[in-house]
Design brief:
376 residues; mainly beta; 6-stranded antiparallel β-sheet; 5-stranded antiparallel β-sheet; 35 strands; 0% helix
């Protein structure tokens, strides 16, 4: 037996005991959650980090498929966990650590996931590997599905298109990485109106023909500086606009058909974007969280000191939920940005939470998956 301590703000804390891999908490006292918006259901350890390991990080995000969540970790395993009680249903060893999002393909009954040694996998719902593809560079972001193709990007500034059925290579596109330092991470590709949009570390946002990989247009989002021009935010779409950002160049809205810049905001480090119900939510380590209209007008801002790198905010009922690499899981009021609750398991959370209805599933830097229910 060992103690499980969960720090819950605003100001609340709970302590419980755990035995084995999964811990269930279904009768938590309401007073332990001052904002009354979240309830811890269970915890399951999937990657045991040593107590004295310096700043471990886990960045994998899972996919909920029926009554299970399929998620990986830096331990190099993909696991299926029962969403009701946290039991591990199966575990499949992969060739490298997993930092990206697991993507579910309902048509073919398989999930896609990449590893830090450059492999990209299709795995069935029983945990069997159907096919794999070896790419150049770590695969640290989730895949994109469009028709019969699946797209993914790598840390080597490459976008690859494969046939979803069988994994046959169709095309790839890459750009030369700039000299000097770049920001860690890379954008995931996104498909829209027959094109695939991808950001690169040289500061370019590129639109590619989804079937052939032909360049439709390429636009530099770099600022005057030649340092930290990376386009690491996965693009979002608002009508005929594609929203993207350069770390030093700020936030851009471009016309998706030709790359014409419609507006720009100087938000340094805006590497986490999400469009939900007519609002654009932007997170940046220094400037915190902001809500904007699709034409670039600020609605509100919320400072988040010392939270670390932030994941894209997700709308869940009246809330926004997202993670801070050093702080843990944030729950804020969507209409105002007011902080309602912070779930801090002790080492922060670099992974984005998985949202399914009112349920959240979060892999923390300690190597445990937590199931949290929201109240609204």
């Amino acid at each position: 037996m060992r103690a499980l301590a969960l720090a819950l703000a605003l100001g609340g804390a709970l302590a419980g005991a755990c035995g084995g891999a999964a811990v269930r908490r279904t009768d938590v006292d309401q007073r332990e959650y001052p904002a009354n918006v979240a309830h811890l259901r269970w915890r399951t350890a999937i990657h045991e980090h040593g107590m004295f390991e310096a700043r471990p990080e886990e960045a994998a995000t899972g996919a909920v498929v029926g009554s299970k969540i399929i998620i990986g970790s830096r331990a190099g395993k993909l696991l299926a966990i029962n969403t009701t009680d946290g039991r591990t249903l199966w575990s499949t060893a992969l060739s490298g650590g997993i930092d990206g999002e697991t993507r579910y393909d309902a048509t073919r009954g398989q999930v896609y996931v990449g590893s830090d040694d450059g492999y990209f996998y299709a795995v069935d719902l029983a945990g069997q590997i159907r096919w794999s593809y070896k790419a150049k560079g770590a695969v640290e972001r989730g895949a994109e599905l469009a028709g019969d193709l699946v797209y993914f990007s790598t840390a080597a500034d490459r976008v690859v298109a494969l046939e979803a059925q069988g994994g046959k290579w169709r095309w790839q596109y890459e750009r030369e990485a700039p000299e000097g330092f770049t920001i860690h991470g890379h954008a995931a590709p996104r498909a829209h109106d027959g094109a695939v949009f991808a950001g690169f570390s040289d500061g370019y946002l590129v639109s590619l023909n989804g079937q052939s990989g032909e360049v439709l247009w390429a636009k530099s989002l770099a600022a005057a500086t030649d340092q930290f021009v990376d386009v690491d935010a996965t693009p979002a779409f608002a009508g005929d606009l594609v929203i993207a950002s350069s770390y030093s160049g700020g936030l851009y809205a471009l016309r998706s058909r030709d790359g014409d810049v419609r507006w720009r905001l100087n938000i340094e480090g805006a590497s986490a974007l999400r469009l939900a119900e007519g609002r654009l939510y932007v997170a940046a380590p220094r400037e915190g969280l902001a809500a904007l209209t699709p034409d670039g007008q600020f609605l509100w801002r919320q400072g988040l000191a010392d939270a670390g790198d932030l994941t894209p905010p997700q709308a869940v009922g009246p809330y926004l939920v997202f993670s801070g690499c050093r702080a843990g899981l944030f729950i804020v009021e969507r209409s105002t940005g007011r902080l309602l609750q912070l779930f801090n398991p002790g080492r922060g959370a670099c992974a984005a939470p998985v949202v399914e209805g009112k349920e959240l599933y979060l892999l923390t830097n300690s190597g445990s998956v937590y199931a949290v229910s929201l109240v609204f």
